[in-house]
Amino acid sequence: MRTSTAGRVGQYAALLAYLVFLAFPFLWLLSTAFKSPRELGSLHPTWIPEDPTLDNFRQAFDEQPLLRAAGNSLLAALGAALVAVLIATPLAYVMARHRTPLARAATGWVVVSQAFPLVLVIIPLFLVLKNLRLINSLFGLVLVYVVWALPFALWMLVGYVRAVPVELEEAAAVDGAGKLRTLVSVTAPLLAPGIVATALFAFITAWNEFFFALVLLKTPEKQTLPVVLTHFIGAEGVADLGPLAAAAFLATLPSLVVFAIIQRRITSGMLTGAVKS
Fold first, then answer.
1. Cα separation of 164 and 177, whole Å?
2. Are 24 and 32 in contact (CB under 8 A)?
3. Global pTM?
4. Which of 76, 151, 192, 244 has the fewest CB atoms below 10 angstroms from its CB?
5. Tally of CB atoms within 10 A around 164
6. What is the pLDDT of residues 190-230, one digit of tens each?
């Protein structure tokens, strides 16, 4: 009993330490965003601003087109998430239900492809988009995000499809439902948590992406939010810390809001009790 209690306390302590580790950057960013220039230059920084101010937010919006950049990021992230899910869902179903050698090889390639660094693919990718005249285009950036997110999205959805009992589809077929009707009425609703989780992954990946956007987008009017945030760093590498923290804090909010809204759907509990033994 004592060993079990000690182990549980250790697990909770480790979880608490991990949560503190994850929350520290965000809390420090939030604190910095509301500090005055005097506090930012202090040799003894504090967690809670002594004289909270909104000047950093005003200055951030005055110096850089944050709303336009956020709109570009939102368009690219939503487009990438939607297209990736539309492509990955039927492919994942085929790979999960038809376990042929080709499907297993495709699954292995999906996992291996995640090991390739961005620098390795940026030059051929740039040349391909240049030939298609999609450089400095949000549409071209969306295509890049879809290609980059698709392997992992496909890998995620294959696992969700395999978690759906095949007996449900067989029962629907016995009742006279065709393949399409079974997919739409039986399988798709059970895949909703997986589709939502996959779309969230693709959205956050595209929203936070910096390298592709920096290389492929040239004009300021089309730059995304992560690229615009670098404009708060001067030519000599000195950051305008207050406005940068304020803008970075605003840039993190969409991801947090989206996750807070749909996190209850990211669960496998919808399958509980679907099949009785």
1. 17
2. no
3. 0.80
4. 192
5. 23
6. 888 888 888 888 898 899 899 899 988 988 889 999 999 98
